[in-house]
Structure formats: structure tokens, C-alpha cells
Amino acid sequence: MADYIIAIDQGTTSSRAIIFDKKGSIVATGQKEHEQILPKAGWVEHDAAEIWRNVQEVIGLALGRADLTRHDIAAVGITNQRETAVVWDKNTGKPIYNAIVWQDTRTQEIVDRLAADGGVERFKPVVGLPLATYFSGTKIAWILENVEGAREKAEAGDLLFGTTDCWVLWNLTGGADGGVHATDVTNASRTMFMDLETLEWRDDILEAFGVPRSMMPEIRSSSEVYGTAESSSLLRETPIAGILGDQQAATFGQAAFQTGESKNTYGTGCFLIFNTGEEVVHSKNGLLTTVGYKLGDGPTHYALEGSIAVTGSLIQWLRDQLGIISSAPEVEKLAEQVEDNGGVYIVPAFSGLFAPYWRPDARGAIVGLTRYANKNHIARAALEAVAFQTRDVLDAVNADAGVDLTELKVDGGMVANDALMQFQADVLGVPVVRPVVAETTALGAAYAAGLAVGFWNGLDDLSANWQEDKRWEPSMDEAERDRQLRLWRKAVTKSMDWVDEDVK
Ligand SMILES: Nc1ncnc2c1ncn2[C@@H]1O[C@H](COP(=O)(O)OP(=O)(O)O)[C@@H](O)[C@H]1O
Ligand SMILES: O=P(O)(O)OC[C@H](O)CO
């Protein structure tokens, strides 16, 4: 058997291809950012055609850097930004509109319309999700209602929907020339349309959203052979054998396979996932219920999730919109030049507030400003906002689980930031632990693909690969932690109730 697995990580900010060996170590990486298209306040789009071009390019980069060919690759795993909706014409292979990204809030009116009959929790007992702009369902509905000719084409069976895993799989397996139109259970669980118990699309919910079932991909497990790469691909004939939404992939890559295990990933947003085993658990504290993973014909593993919309993207905002840093890592230097936040708190409710608040009416707020405040305080407050939001989610997980987590496994682009990780341990009051391979998202997809083709024999092989790299112990005294949390929560209340009829 070939000695490597390649994982394609189609993220919000960039697409990566990462080649792993049997130990789960990274052999080579290719990465390319794609454009963030921001046509109006609250709108976030990606060009799906650009994403597919980038995916092909990064596969070439990774293979080239490792000096490997497709013959060295046993299988391909795919992981992806979840919820982001691509709708394309199955005859031409062209998207009929830009992909509407998970952070996009344009569909609030559709949410309100659907919620008018039964409230935002109307479908939650079946799909685990409240009605919110975050999930794919209202994004598909928006495209069908607003793109000229889309409704007719959809009714005629000419349009396909997919999250970006499905878009990449379809293209990689031949596109309009016989591409496989499938997604996995974890991605399907983020659409609003999948029944968590039966793992099938719900016709009544599709109908309520006005989405024809013919657009929907087949729902498959997270680890099985979906198809092989088509003949013009650098990976031709290689089996595509694993798909997991990126947060579930990170949980899998952290080897958090058992009930009660968890992880928090710090990327564009932050996502804490808590494994609830084979049981569907409904949150009483603002968390989502989602599928964790399903390997082939094996049992379905479920999870509770605390999704935070804006964390790394707040650092991008400091860089791109305010211009106070020229690269993301610079934020740490800036923040460390002051002893504290100078009384400044940032609530980055750019897309409203997600877990555990679910307040679409919230917008970003910077509070506590005095003339003393400077860019260093803003940088510090931005990092602190990431940690405070995670604390709010962890409180919800602890309340739902009925036990307190004793440490937090972390990963993602932001965990390179020492100041943030130390502050995170301080405001949580529990240690924060980073594994050697912090690219757990890609690793999780590689694991799913490798298990399907016998590259790894079972979960024990994967657990044996997990190794601790660094641990941050809490060092803040309790009174100071309580004071900071009180001020943070006061700041959160200031961001709420902002959007009304005049403010979009
Ligand atoms: N050293 C750093 N300090 C703070 N934020 C960082 C640092 N390095 C990267 N980031 C942020 O992390 C994000 C990238 O992380 P990544 O895991 O690649 O995200 P994604 O998978 O969402 O594309 C970006 O939003 C960037 O602003
Ligand atoms: O691409 P990321 O890492 O920001 O993850 C996005 C999430 O999947 C959105 O739910």
C-alpha cells in the first residue's frame, strides 16, 4: 500500500492540501487564500470556481513539495468550512451565484418568515439547530428566490446544492461528466434539512424552505469510498474515502472519539465540540446538536457544539479594515506592549452573536473607551474577546454535561498565539493543551480516509498518534477572573438590541 494520505482542507480563509504519513505527521503542505467578497454590510461570499481552482493548485503544490505522485497516495480525505452554500448547474458545472458563506446574515428575513410559524426552535427537535442565517437552508432559499431563472431550473432538476466538501468531491470525481453528488452526515447535519435520528433529508422541512429534493446530495458516512479522482486530476484513480465538516474533523484529529471528550478550534471562528456518544442530546444552554462522525456502517456519534462566529476574523479585521497590524501574528506583539486592556472590551458581533446567545440583533461594539485607550489596548481586547467568548461556550457545555471539563484541547491557526492561550487558561481556570500536530482538521479528514482503505486499522492506531506539545496553566487569581468576566458580560449586553428596522 502507498505510504501517505492527502487531506484537502477547504477552509473559510484558504484551501490547503496536506500530506500525512502513518504517524499522522505532516510531510508537505500547499495553501492558497481565496478572495473574501463583501458586497454589502453583512454579506460574505466566495467564488466557488476560484475555490476549485485553488484546491487543484494546492494538491499540486503539496505533491511537488513532498516529491510524491498519486502512486504514493493511498486515499484522499476532504474537510471543509461547513454550511457555506454552493448552487450550480449540473449540465455546465458552473455555480449560478457566488457561494454564500456561513457568516453571511442576508437571510434574516427568510429566518423571520419561517419563524413566524412556530418560532426559531421550530425544527430544532428534528435537526438540532435553531433557525438562523448561519445554516445552509436559508442560503439555498435565498438563491432560489433571488437569482433570475434559478427557481425554474431547480424545479426542472438542473441545479445541485452542496457545501464545499460536496463541490470539491463532485469536481474531483468528474464534474458535469459523472461527478459524484454526495456529502457526509456531519455536513448534512448543518443544513437544517437532515433528521438527526434517521440521517435522511426531511421532505417537510425542504418544502417549508421551498428547496426541491432533487438539488440535495446523497448523504453518506464520514469514512467510505465515495469515488475516485477523474482522469485529468493529479490524483487520478485515487479513492476519495473520507469527508468530515472541519470542526468534526478537528475533533476526530484530536482523537476525541469517546463520550465526554472535546476540543476547541481557533480559526476564522471558534468551535467547541463535546462528544455525546451515540445519543442525541438537546442543549438547554444555547448549544447546537450535530453529528460528530460515522464510520462506514458503524454507529452514529453525536456532539454538542458551541459555535462562535468571529475570532480569527476579528484579527483579520484589525489587519484589513483598521490597518493597525500588517499580519495576524503581529497582534501578539502589539497586545504585549500594554499590561492590560486599559478598560477596553470588544464584542465582535459582526454576524450577530452565535452560541450561546443566538442574538441576530447584536452588532459589534467596542466599549470602555477613554482617551487613554490606544491601538495596543484594542489589540489586547481583540485577543481577550476570543477567550471570553470561549469561556461563555464552555460554561454552556458544563451546564449541559452536568460536569465541569478539567482541561481544554485546542487547535487551529490562532493557537500559535501564546498570549491568547495563556489568557484563555486564565479566564477558564483550567489548563489549555495543544497537540504536536495543530493541523487537526486536515488530520481528522486524513484519518477518516485512511480508516476506509485500511491505511490505519482502527481508532487505537489514531489515539496512539496524539501527542501533547504545550500546556498553559491558569495563573490569574479568582477575584480578578470574576471581575473581568463581569465586565465582559456587561459589554456583551451593550452589543445587543442594535439591529432594528433602520439598521441592517
Ligand atoms: N499568531 C496569530 N495570532 C492571532 N490570530 C492568528 C494568528 N495566526 C493566525 N491567526 C488567525 O487565525 C485565522 C486562520 O486560522 P485557520 O485555522 O487557518 O483558519 P480557517 O481554517 O478558518 O481558514 C485567521 O483568521 C488569522 O487571523
Ligand atoms: O473554515 P473555518 O475553520 O473557519 O470553519 C468554519 C466552520 O466550519 C463554520 O461552521
Average the pLDDT over all residues and give the rounded result: 95
Alpha-beta classification: alpha/beta
Biggest sheet strand line-up: 15-16-14-13-19-20-21
Beta percentage is 15-25%
Notable traits:
ATP-binding, Glycerol_kin, EC 2.7.1.30, binds SN-glycerol-3-phosphate, alpha/beta, single chain, transferase, 7-stranded mixed beta sheet, 6-stranded mixed beta sheet, kinase, 504 residues, binds adenosine-5'-diphosphate
Structure write-up:
By secondary structure, the chain is of the alpha/beta class. Helix content is 34%, strand content 22%. It is built from 16 helices and 21 strands. The strands form six sheets. A seven-stranded mixed beta sheet has the order 15-16-14-13-19-20-21. The chain has a six-stranded mixed beta sheet with strand order 3-2-1-5-12-11, sandwiched between helices. The protein starts with a strand and ends in a 9-residue tail after the last helix. SN-glycerol-3-phosphate (G3P) binds at residues 11-12, 81-83, 102, 245-247, 267-269, 307. Adenosine-5'-diphosphate (ADP) binds at residues 11-14, 267-268, 312-313, 315-316, 328-329, 331-332, 412-414, 416-417.
